[in-house]
Input
Amino acid sequence: MAVTLYKAYQGYAAGATIIVPDDTQTALIAQGIGYAASGQPTQTYQATGSTVLSPTVGGNKSPQDIAGFGAPSSPQGPRILPNGPILAFASLGTSAVHVAGTWYRAEIQVPHLAQWTGIQVLNGATVGTDHLMVALYDTNGVLITNSAVAGVLSAGANAFQSIAFLTQPILTPGRYFVAVQCNGTTATTRRWAAANGGNQMTQSATGTFGTVPASFTPPTTFTADVGPIAALYQ
Output
């Protein structure tokens, strides 16, 4: 399970979040070394005596050391990870307005272990009128974390806008979902079009701005002009 450290432990600094077997988490909390972390993927990580396990983190399985793991001290891959091929910003995908409160979701493949700060959203030509917020879900559609529910003013026409999470999750390799919501119908963001998308599952769902669903049923098809063009960033 995930633990945030009060004090240094096994090479991890105070304040670091690490993912450890269940019995280790219980011991660390009982000894006052850390506390149960929030805003992290759900984990199934039982110690078995082997040196390497394949814990399930956010529904994804990947080999990890039995002693637990945290955010790597050195980057293991790109620090900005888009959810599709990125071409000229001003012509990529479809620039579209939002239905206020509707969530727009798309898959993203994470190839390496890393801790992430937030989601970058590719804005369209019209910005500065409405507020945006983002959320991150695991492969099963279970909420991991989200940005501030008040949202941030859209800014930067035809450019990626960075929106920070409330907590910074550690993600193991696998599939996740990025989600974008807007409180108005004027600002535009760019969505994957049939001509340059199609290899990721996408969906939209009505909602109320600032209300973040705890889960959703993951899509099994690609719908053009729905999935946000976005990236995770460190």
